[in-house]
Amino acid sequence: MTENQFRTENQRRATLTESEKKKILEVDPSFHGIARATYFDNYDLPCPIKVEVETKENSSRAVVLRKTRHGNVEMEVEMFRALKEYGLPVPEILSDPFQNEDGNSVAIYSLLEGENLQKLSMRSADNLQEAKRLLVEAVLALMGASSFIAKHEVSKSLPQRSLQVELAAIKTSQSLWSKEPIFQLALQRIEAVLPGVTTPLVFSNGDYQPGNFLAKNGQITGFLDFESPAFQDPLMGFVKYPIYDLHPLAKTDVIETVLDALKFTKRDFSIRLALGCLKTLQKEIPVVGGEVDSRGYRERVLALLGSALTDFV
Asked: Does domain 10-111 have CATH number 3.30.420?
């Protein structure tokens, strides 16, 4: 298995602004000074920052500083409060969102116990299987909150992303891919089958990547990253596993496990995978050229698209 470390501590050093330091020290009267600030060990930086704080009793505590990255920190705070009511293990809000010197929204959270499932999956073959089980368990728990969240005040701010909405967004976002024969063929085939798909939407944090779930002693201990929550199709959150080839979970039978748990078929998943491939091609991949990695990425996604299309003709 791969070494369970993405970057050294030195590579993960983070610099806090004066307003961020001030807000952290205001969290607790015992807080005396900032010992260190480091990004969590993650394959994608920047990410949330772990801040170790010295106390007046000569001990230390850790908090999490969260900046807007790809969504909305204010929305995440509201989601954490709602999910706390529901009973899921989510961070405590230690400081409401504020603007730092760079104009970024920032919030301060408690640090939850546990290791994220990405790191767990990389430890050993047995841990990989454990991470797969826990990932499916965590996503099912989020889906289980759907009725509660739908009745909660926070639901008024959540988008409804049906497959039809996803398809419409692809069709209206013009790109060079729109003129490619494989892209046009995929659109036609997806349009032909979607009228028969009436799957109810479920609550999602918007990103089922394994780093967003924490576990300890075989139990889920934390749900993270709610910057972009939504009600969406229950399978769309999993298409990223083959598309991004999320190592090492993508090499397991995680998709088959999800389909079995939710009572869906391979054909059901192929429809969503084809839709996800179109979104990815349009958003991230050039039609021609690019570096070696980009060309490999394009070839893999096009191969996935072709395979998915044959599964639901």
From this structure: no
Q: Residue 231 and residue 155: Cα distance in Å, rounded?
A: 9
Whether 83 contacts 90, CB under 8 Å:
yes
Q: Is the peptide bond before 248 cis (omega within 30 degrees of 0)?
A: yes
For 109, the token pair is 């959270």
Residue with tokens 């546990």: 114
**DSSP-assigned letter for residue 19:** H
Quickly name the fold that domain 116-311 has: Aminoglycoside 3'-phosphotransferase; Chain: A, domain 2 (3.90.1200)
Q: 43 pLDDT band (50/70/90 cuts)?
A: low
Question: Domain residue spans in the chain?
Answer: 10-111, 116-311
Locate 200 and state its tokens: 């109810």
Pairing status of strand 219-223 against strand 93-99: unpaired
Residue with structure tokens 């096009």? 302
Tokens coding 269: 């998943």
- The two structure tokens encoding residue 23: 């807000």
pTM of the model: 0.93
pLDDT value of residue 4: 59
| Mean pLDDT, the chain, whole residue set | 94
Q: Map residue 52 onto helix, strand or coil.
A: strand
116 token code pair: 């994220």
Asked whether residue 44 carries a pLDDT value surpassing 80, the answer given is no
How far is 269 from 282, CA to CA, in rounded Å? 20
Across the range 43-53, mean pLDDT stands at 84
In sequence order, the 6+-apart residues with CB closer than 8 A to the CB of 11 are: none
Burial degree of 224 (CB within 10 A; 0-12, 13-18, 19+): buried
